[in-house]
Amino acid sequence: MLRHGSISAPLYLDANLIVLARQDGETWAITATNNASRARSVKVKLPSAMKAKMLRNALTGEQLAVDKNGQLQLSVPALFGSLLVTP
Predict the structure, then answer these.
(1) In Å, what is the CA distance from 65 to each residue of 5, 51, 56, 57?
(2) Taking the CA of residue 20 as centre, how many other CA atoms within 13 Å lie in the half-sphere pointing to its CB?
(3) Could you tell me which of 25, 23, 24, 11 has the C-alpha nearest to residue 74?
(4) CA distance 47 to 2
(5) 58 DSSP 8-state letter
(6) All domains in the chain, ordered by first residue
(7) Nearest-CA neighbor of 39 among 76, 3, 86?
(8) Which of 16, 20, 38, 82 is in the most buried spot, having the most CB atoms within 10 Å?
(9) Contact of 53 with 68, CB cutoff 8 Å
């Protein structure tokens, strides 16, 4: 999944956190990488095709819902990343 498909401009970007979306057909992946020494939380606006979808954290198995407005609340641990995929 992460080797194929299209990648969009960053959904969020600052000095320590970057959130990217990748699409391959109907499958989506959201990656978030945090290089800060503290955990970060951010609300990101996802592409309209992702409204009301469910995502699964590939590392923990946790299920996350994209709200009806296409926004997702992310919490990324310090010096770590998250990989969210559509089931």
Answers:
(1) 22, 9, 9, 11
(2) 13
(3) 11
(4) 17
(5) T
(6) 6-85 (2.60.40.1180)
(7) 76
(8) 82
(9) no
